[in-house]
């Protein structure tokens, strides 16, 4: 594993335009294409998903189309359902618990970009892991930002942008998401 990829996985600043990362991305492109193929059988789609993701639990259902950065840094627990048009950018690990429900157009975004204009122009970025507990429900269009942890049994309302950790067992809504009550 090259130094740049090691920096990426450690959450340090790295350059996204790198030969090794480009090869990983090519692999992801082919597997996402196979997964999203409208003519694929359920067995073919499951095979592509198992090759694409770091780990995928029994009974996981992801409705295509589905996109990710690498796939290999995503773990999804058993019986989790992800609706259409999910985007999981996994330059850092994304860990999703069991029995979760994600509405359409959910985005899990681990990358961060440099605020300094010269470094950003040069392609520097980093990533911070996202962790979603068991039995979490993310409504349609929810965006989860880098470094966020959402506790088990939490519900996030449609269209919310989660910028900070949410504890277990709450309902959160809005942009930025805020807790409105315990469940």
| Helix-strand category | alpha/beta
Query: On the 0-100 scale, what is the average pLDDT?
Result: 96
**Helical content, roughly?**
10-25%
Q: Mind summarizing the main beta sheet?
A: 7 strands, mixed
Number of spatially distinct domains: 1
In percent, how much strand structure appears in the residues? 25-35%
> Gyration radius, to the nearest Å?
16 Å
Order of helices and strands: HEHHEEEEEEEEEEHEEEEEEEEE
Which spans have pLDDT < 50 for at least 5 consecutive residues?
Answer: none
Number of helices: 4
Question: CATH fold name, please?
Answer: UDP N-Acetylglucosamine Acyltransferase, domain 1
- The CATH class name reads Mainly Beta
Instruction: Report the CATH architecture.
Output: 3 Solenoid
3D structure, described in words:
- The chain has about 180 residues and is an alpha/beta fold.
- It has a single domain, classed as Hexapeptide repeat proteins (UDP N-Acetylglucosamine Acyltransferase, domain 1).
- The chain has 4 helices and 20 strands.
- The chain has helices spanning about 5-10, 20-35, 40-50, 115-120, and strands spanning about 15, 55, 60, 65-70, 75, 80, 85-90, 95, 100, 105-110, 110-115, 125, 130, 135-140, 145, 150, 155, 160, 170-175, 180.
- A 7-stranded mixed beta sheet has the order 3-6-9-14-17-19-20, with no helix packed on it.
- β19 and β20 form a beta hairpin.
- The radius of gyration is 16 Å and the shape is globular.
- The model has no long low-confidence stretch (mean pLDDT about 95).
């Amino acid at each position: 594993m090259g130094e740049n990829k090691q920096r990426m996985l450690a959450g340090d600043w790295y350059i996204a335009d790198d030969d090794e990362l480009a090869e990983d991305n090519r692999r992801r492109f082919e597997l996402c294409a196979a997964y999203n193929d409208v003519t694929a059988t359920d067995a073919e789609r499951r095979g592509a998903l198992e090759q694409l993701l770091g780990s995928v639990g029994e009974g996981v259902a992801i409705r295509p189309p589905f996109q990710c950065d690498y796939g290999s840094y995503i773990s999804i627990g058993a019986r989790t359902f992800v609706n259409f048009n999910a985007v999981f950018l996994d330059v850092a690990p994304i860990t999703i618990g069991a029995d979760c429900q994600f509405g359409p157009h959910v985005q899990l975004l681990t990358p961060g970009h440099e605020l300094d204009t010269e470094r950003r122009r040069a392609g520097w970025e980093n990533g911070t892991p996202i962790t979603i507990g068991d039995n979490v429900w993310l409504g349609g269009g929810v965006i989860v930002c880098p470094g966020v942890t959402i506790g088990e049994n939490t519900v996030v309302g449609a269209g919310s942008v989660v910028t900070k950790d949410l504890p277990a067992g709450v309902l959160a809504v809005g942009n930025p998401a805020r807790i409105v009550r315990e469940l």
